[in-house]
Specification:
By secondary structure, this protein is α+β, with helices and mostly antiparallel strands. The chain has six helices and seven strands. It has helices at 3-16, 23-30, 34-46, 81-90, 117-130, 152-164; strands spanning 51-54, 57-60, 68-75, 94-102, 106-114, 142-149, 168-173. It has a five-stranded antiparallel β-sheet, with helices on one face. A two-stranded antiparallel sheet has the order 1-2. The protein is elongated, with a radius of gyration of 17 Å. It starts with a helix and ends with a strand. 21% of the residues are buried.
Length: 176
């Protein structure tokens, strides 16, 4: 299989996956080195493919059934993470991605895909179990989420609630 065919097959593999796929898994599946996969991902991203590199592997950004998206910048402390996420989910929102703009490392982020209380609990459990510091601790609580909902009204309600409790700093429409 030549490199162009392999990249096409990698895209198909990622489209079929519901969870992030590690570079090692892709390397084994396509009988190449992990370094070849890293290079392939760079080429695919440069060609405009919506591939996210996460701590758990590569993920193809898929359009979900939620049509409206908004990028919001919020600020709160670590002990308010559960409250913030629960407010978004309770109003019908999904937290797709989060990132911070670090003064040294630039934009650092992760795909979250949180849409339920169960997802929130899993996220919090993983954070505690691994001992990893949440991204917001890198920027004194300031971080950005891409959230999604069925309609603009729901996004407006989420933003109004986050503004009411003092978390929301800024909001902008996110590209689909």
């Amino acid at each position: 299989m030549n490199s162009e065919d392999r990249r096409h097959q990698i895209l198909k593999y990622l489209q079929a996956a519901d969870e992030p796929v590690s570079g090692s898994e892709l390397a084994e599946h396509f009988s190449v080195t992990r370094q070849v996969i890293v290079k392939d991902m760079g080429i695919l991203k440069a060609s405009g493919q919506p591939i996210l590199s996460t701590a758990r592997g590569y993920l193809l950004q898929k359009d979900t059934d939620t049509r409206c998206r908004r990028e919001i910048t919020v600020c709160h402390q670590k002990d308010q993470i559960a409250d913030e996420l629960q407010r978004i989910v309770d109003l019908g929102g999904h937290i797709l991605y989060t990132h911070v703009n670090h003064p040294i490392y630039g934009s650092v982020g992760e795909a979250l895909r949180i849409k339920s209380k169960k997802d929130i609990l899993q996220f919090l459990h993983t954070t505690e179990e691994t001992g990893c510091m949440p991204l917001l601790e890198l920027t004194n609580g300031v971080h950005t989420h891409t959230i999604a909902a069925e309609d603009e009204q729901t996004l407006d309600e989420i933003c109004a609630e986050l503004r009411r409790v003092g978390y929301l700093l800024e909001e902008t429409d996110a590209e689909k």
